[in-house]
Amino acid sequence: MADTMFDFMEMIDSDIMGKVLSQVREYDDTRFHANDVKNALGKDRLTFYDYSALLSPAAEDFLEETAARAKMETRKYFGSSISMFTPLYLANYCSNHCVYCGFNCNNNIRRGKLSYAEMESEMDAISKTGLREILLLTGESRSQSNVDYIGEAVKLAKKYFSTIGIEIYPLNSDEYAYLHRCGADFVSVYQETYDPDIYEKNHLSGPKRVYPYRFDAQERAVIGGMRGVAFGSLLGLGDFRKDAFATGIHAHYLQRKYPHIEMSFSVPRIRAYINAENHGCSVGEKQLLQVMLAYRLFMPFAGITISTRERAGFRDNIIGLAATKISAGVKVGVGGHGLEEIGDEQFEISDSRDVAQVHAMILEKGLQPVYTDYLRLI
Amino acid sequence: MNDKLIIGNKEFNSRFILGSGKFPLDITRTVIENGGVEMATLALRRANMGGKENILDYLPKGITLLPNTSGARTAQEAVRIARLARELGCGDFVKIEVINDAKYLMPDNYETIKATEILAKEGFIVMPYMFPDLIAARHLAAAGASAIMPLGAPIGSNKGLLTRDFVKILIDEIDLPIIVDAGIGKPSQACEAMELGVSAVMANTAIATADDVGLMSTAFKLAVESGRYAYLAGLGRVLEYKAEASSPLTGFLED
């Protein structure tokens, strides 16, 4: 594992990574049989064993029953509410070389970053669609999109949105605290894969190569005062079952340590990007569904977000079943909401519907589109 | 029969309080009408003033709004949300919810007491959601609460009155309306709580997760009324032990 920290990287005193990695080392999905799956489906609270059973190949034969349980849990905890949001890419400069990502620093794409005036005009355009929740994203470049720059973006977003999340490079706790004071409350960081060897092979250079610093990002965000954190593996990068298992127990241990924090999961799987050979995708929709259902049953209280990486038909049916949050009116290049796009996109999207269309779809499903479910108290 | 529920300065004919926010907004009116609901909670965090799908736009005029402080993790946050609710025109009623456990959504009685004290002094009609602990309930009463809202089971669990014996203690010992707030999963459980002597029942998930939400609201209305009548009528004796010993234990008296 590449664990030589860069000078700027904060070390925190935490045993969570050790706990997760030791569980992951023991993970063996070939030991599960139909009975383990049935037992898991009969329980209110799943053990790690039950959870891995639901992620195992043996559970693929029980997807229908699992879905029925998941739907019930989703309704119990979230009722018919489906939250809506959109991402806004502020910049796509990146100092990492991740072999699967369109933003990687060696990929020859159009780079750009929004000026403050451009950001505000994009935010204004987004808020006019009715959305009140925004996710601000950047590529991982501490020089091109530094913390002050992101802080200014958050302050601007505060004028237009009730809920602000950030999906940027991992920060130190004092930097999270700063962005929290600016108005951000939710942080997404994806470990991509929890397998240290596969992680190293896919992250060839840049700060992201340092596995432990990324791993502890959510905890540093919590220490910095953030209200909620999101977890995710890039499914298909390593063994997706093992990675989904690790993602769940990572969230579990953090929840045990900080019981007040809101938890959520995202479920990206590998997609094609500009200038890439088809990377292939070992995770089909069936497996993706299995992972989402397992997250739901393992942590029934956690949010699950479905992105536009997935096609409309999948998105429309997963909400209310496992997912509780859906993006709409998505542009994954830099700009593109009101302004012309000034930087290329990170990946290709499969659902280009606007906010009104997604809103109408949610209502059609008998569910309730929710624009705001959060009160910022700072 | 003159049997009003009195909370703060207000009288209610209905003893079924609706938690909104878990079912689609466009059926809110039907649920309220079918349930004969006169008081409904709303999460202030769902208020999208001037925006789309604002929960406040869907609650009919004439019912009493009970804004809750969901999202608050400390007394101070609850106080700020309550004040915001009043500024937004939601009235003086407030349901204090202070939760800093994201998994079971257990209320923090200690912070709830602190928030109740502050808000009662500011003239709010405070209805704190709490774990049914007698000592905490006494503190809440002393802090100026207008009703006490103990949970029956974890929120959303639909498990019924798991805390029955502890709720009964509150009914017996606290001179305020006791309103069971969470966990009631079916009309029979609402009826059971009312028979026990609670002043009102609140439900949300039980209705929202029904196949026919409107009809379930009617069912709750009837169950709550039925339980109330049974309580007022005085339940008949239900023998839980063998009726009579075959040779009387007290037969030796006055031999």
Walk me through what this model shows.
The complex is a heterodimer of chains A (378) and B (255). Chain A has helices spanning 16-26, 34-41, 48-55, 63-78, 116-127, 147-160, 173-182, 196-202, 211-215, 217-223, 240-257, 285-298, 312-318, 355-364; strands spanning 81-91, 97-98, 133-138, 163-167, 186-188, 203-205, 228-232, 262-266, 303-306, 325-327, 368-370. Chain A has 378 residues and is of the alpha/beta class. Chain A has an 8-stranded parallel beta barrel with strand order 1-3-4-5-7-8-9-10, surrounded by 6 helices. In chain A, helix 12 links the parallel strand 8 and strand 9. In chain A, helix 4 (63-78) crosses helix 12, helix 6 runs parallel beside helix 7 and helix 7 (173-182) packs across helix 10. The model of chain A has no long low-confidence stretch (mean pLDDT 92). Chain B has a single domain (5-233), classed as Alpha-Beta Barrel (TIM Barrel), CATH 3.20.20. Chain B is 35% helix and 15% strand. Chain B is globular. The A-B interface holds A 72, 75-81, 130, 132, 162, 255, 259-263, 301, 359, 363, 366-375, 377 and B 21-26, 43-48, 51-53, 71, 73, 77, 80-81, 84, 100-103, 105, 156-158, 204-205, 208-209.
Draw up the topology in text.
The complex is a heterodimer of chains A (378) and B (255).
Chain A: H1 16-26, H2 34-41, H3 48-55, H4 63-78, E1 81-91, E2 97-98, H5 116-127, E3 133-138, H6 147-160, E4 163-167, H7 173-182, E5 186-188, H8 196-202, E6 203-205, H9 211-215, H10 217-223, E7 228-232, H11 240-257, E8 262-266, H12 285-298, E9 303-306, H13 312-318, E10 325-327, H14 355-364, E11 368-370
Parallel strand pairs in A: 1-3, 1-10, 1-11, 3-4, 4-5, 5-7, 7-8, 8-9, 9-10
Antiparallel strand pairs in A: 2-6
Helix pairs in contact in A: 1-11, 2-3, 3-11, 3-12, 4-12, 5-6, 6-7, 7-10
Chain B: E1 5-7, E2 10-12, E3 16-19, H1 28-35, E4 39-43, E5 64-68, H2 75-87, E6 93-96, H3 109-121, E7 125-130, H4 134-143, E8 149-150, H5 164-173, E9 179-180, H6 187-196, E10 200-203, H7 205-208, H8 213-233
Parallel strand pairs in B: 3-4, 3-10, 4-5, 6-7, 7-8, 9-10
Antiparallel strand pairs in B: 1-2
Helix pairs in contact in B: 1-8, 2-3, 3-4, 6-8
